[in-house]
């Protein structure tokens, strides 16, 4: 457990944040599919991307992917087309509760041979690699976009290509767009229009150098920190105005609702306070396209004692923990009055707040990181703080650089 206290205000500092975990995991898989012809720069040093790299290099028949959801889903598709190889892919206790049936059904309908090693619908999976020649599939698109990305990535290696029809509401759309844009960027003419994705079989891609942009979900904690500070400025490197990452929506969300100004210069992003900003009565946001910044936004609201209604949160309950329950439990420790439904979270007011809260992280990196900015206002304690490694291993080092005092207790 750590205790975090703010030492200096205003903040002024520069940080280098690791590459996007989402871009990295897609590019690592593509590179494996296409004989490592890409030279990747600023690849994420997150545990999830390291696990992805190790799994792709692994030649044994048992792969443990721990908490890494994207890696679990992308690798299920990858191993299902490795003819002549049989593997079992497993993960953490939580991974064994995260649904994968939609993806397994789709792959098996295409001709894969995947069975459940424990519980129907969930990892671990036994995968016997097969040649897949079927070239079209319909898949529900309202549970996780990661299933759709997984199919799109391996579609490039199916001899007849793949047409994917998305059935129902499409959630986390920017993550599907990121996949298609990355395929386009390496020269694969993938198309995503309305509810149809078309992926052509591709023999080879050109060798080229690609720079992974830094992680926008990780940037969210600095947006929150600035929103909870005054006259402060933080510069973070390797961010661009034209991002592939949907979480770059942070720029507009924090400009409009929390008074944080973003400026880009020479590949860096500077965040600072807008002195003319005033908080609205109740913040309303639909976050269906940006699920990973929902926790950050809820915690920023608590720091500002703002009321809010956050909707489009139906995917939060199947992530690293049930994030809706975790947010309610922990943010109520600051006096927030919170109501959650299956797909929303509202903060309707605040009770008087008295004690220094001891905050729990539920094995969820984003629970630890979203609450850290509250240290700018309150003295807080965070249990199991090393969960941050999943996406941002140097998080606490960076907070020390910013001037926070972090004590193990
Ligand atoms: O494709 C990706 O890289 C991701 C997609 C999103 O998941 P869902 O599509 O399950 O919402 C997101 O929450 C996750 O952190 C990363
Ligand atoms: C949901 C997340 O990751 P994953 O689904 O890849 O485990 C996340 O990083 O917030």
Automatic annotation (TrEMBL):
SUPFAM superfamilies this protein is in? EPT/RTPC-like
Which keywords belong to this entry?
A: Amino-acid biosynthesis, Aromatic amino acid biosynthesis, Transferase
Q: Where is the Enolpyruvate transferase domain?
A: 56-399
User: From what superkingdom does this record's organism come?
Assistant: Bacteria
User: Which pathway does the protein contribute to?
Assistant: Metabolic intermediate biosynthesis; chorismate biosynthesis; chorismate from D-erythrose 4-phosphate and phosphoenolpyruvate: step 6/7
UniProt EC number? 2.5.1.19
Cite the Pfam families for this sequence.
EPSP_synthase
GO MF annotations for this entry? Answer: 3-phosphoshikimate 1-carboxyvinyltransferase activity
Q: Which Gene3D superfamilies match?
A: Enolpyruvate transferase domain
Could you state one GO biological process linked to this protein? aromatic amino acid family biosynthetic process
The record's catalysed reaction(s) read: 3-phosphoshikimate + phosphoenolpyruvate = 5-O-(1-carboxyvinyl)-3-phosphoshikimate + phosphate
According to its UniProt record, which protein family does this protein belong to? Belongs to the EPSP synthase family.
Q: Which PANTHER family does the protein's record reference?
A: AROM/DEHYDROQUINATE SYNTHASE, PENTAFUNCTIONAL AROM POLYPEPTIDE
Recorded protein name is: 3-phosphoshikimate 1-carboxyvinyltransferase
- Per the UniProt record, the source organism is Chishuiella changwenlii
High-level lineage: Bacteria, Pseudomonadati, Bacteroidota, Flavobacteriia, Flavobacteriales
């Amino acid at each position: 457990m750590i205790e975090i206290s703010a030492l200096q205000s205003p903040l002024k500092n520069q940080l280098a944040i690791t590459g996007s975990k989402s871009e990295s995991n897609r590019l690592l898989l593509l590179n494996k599919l296409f004989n490592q012809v890409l030279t990747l720069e600023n690849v994420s040093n997150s545990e999830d991307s390291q696990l992805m790299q190790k799994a792709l290099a692994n030649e044994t028949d048992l792969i443990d992917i721990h908490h890494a959801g994207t890696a679990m889903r992308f690798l299920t598709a990858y191993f299902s087309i490795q003819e002549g190889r049989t593997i079992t892919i497993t993960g953490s206790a939580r991974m064994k509760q995260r649904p994968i049936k939609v993806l397994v059904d789709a792959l098996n309908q295409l001709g894969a041979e995947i069975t459940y090693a424990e519980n129907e619908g969930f990892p671990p999976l036994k995968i016997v690699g097969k040649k897949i020649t079927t070239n079209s599939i319909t898949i529900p698109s309202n549970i996780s976009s990661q299933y759709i990305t997984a199919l799109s990535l391996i579609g490039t290696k199916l001899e007849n290509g793949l047409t994917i029809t998305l059935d129902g509401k499409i959630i986390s759309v920017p993550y599907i767009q990121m996949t298609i844009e990355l395929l386009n960027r390496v020269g694969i003419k993938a198309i995503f229009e309305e509810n149809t994705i078309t992926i052509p079989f591709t023999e080879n891609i050109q060798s080229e150098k690609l720079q992974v942009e830094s992680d926008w979900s990780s940037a969210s904690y600095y947006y929150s920190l600035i929103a909870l500070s005054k006259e402060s400025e933080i510069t973070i490197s390797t961010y661009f105005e034209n991002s592939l990452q949907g979480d770059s929506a942070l720029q507009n969300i924090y400009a409009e609702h929390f008074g944080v100004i973003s400026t880009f210069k020479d590949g860096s992003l500077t965040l600072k306070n807008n002195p003319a900003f005033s908080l609205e009565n109740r913040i309303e946001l639909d976050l269906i396209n940006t699920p990973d910044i929902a926790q950050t936004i809820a915690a920023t609201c608590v720091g500002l004692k703002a009321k809010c209604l956050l909707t489009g949160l139906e995917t939060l309950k199947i992530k690293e923990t049930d994030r809706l329950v975790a947010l309610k439990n922990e943010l109520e420790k600051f006096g927030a009055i919170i109501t959650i439904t299956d797909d929303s979270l509202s903060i309707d007011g605040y009770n008087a707040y008295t004690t220094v809260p001891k905050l729990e992280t539920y094995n969820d990196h984003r629970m630890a990181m979203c609450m850290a900015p509250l240290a700018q206002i309150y003295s807080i304690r965070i249990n199991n703080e090393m969960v941050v490694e999943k996406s941002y291993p140097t998080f606490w080092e960076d907070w020390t650089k910013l001037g926070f005092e972090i004590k193990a207790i």
